Amino acid sequence: MKLTNDLFLRALKREKTERTPVWLMRQAGRYLPEYRAVRAQAGDFMSMASNPELACEVTIQPLDRFPLDAAIIFSDILTIPDAMGLGLYFVQGEGPKFERPITCAKDIDDLPIVGADDLQYVMDAVSLTTKTLNGRVPLIGFAGSPWTLLTYMLENGGSKSYAKSKALLYKSPELAHQLLDKLAQSTVSYLAGQIEAGASAVQIFDSWGGVLSPADFAAFSLKYMKQIVEGLKNAGYQDTPIILFSKGANRSLPALSRTGCAGLGVDWTINIDEALNLTEGRVALQGNLDPATLYASDAFIDGAVKQVLDAYGDQPGHIFNMGHGMQPDMEPEKVAVLVDAVRRHSSRT
Amino acid sequence: MKLTNDLFLRALKREKTERTPVWLMRQAGRYLPEYRAVRAQAGDFMSMASNPELACEVTIQPLDRFPLDAAIIFSDILTIPDAMGLGLYFVQGEGPKFERPITCAKDIDDLPIVGADDLQYVMDAVSLTTKTLNGRVPLIGFAGSPWTLLTYMLENGGSKSYAKSKALLYKSPELAHQLLDKLAQSTVSYLAGQIEAGASAVQIFDSWGGVLSPADFAAFSLKYMKQIVEGLKNAGYQDTPIILFSKGANRSLPALSRTGCAGLGVDWTINIDEALNLTEGRVALQGNLDPATLYASDAFIDGAVKQVLDAYGDQPGHIFNMGHGMQPDMEPEKVAVLVDAVRRHSSRT
Question: Domain count of chain A?
Answer without folding.
Answer: 1
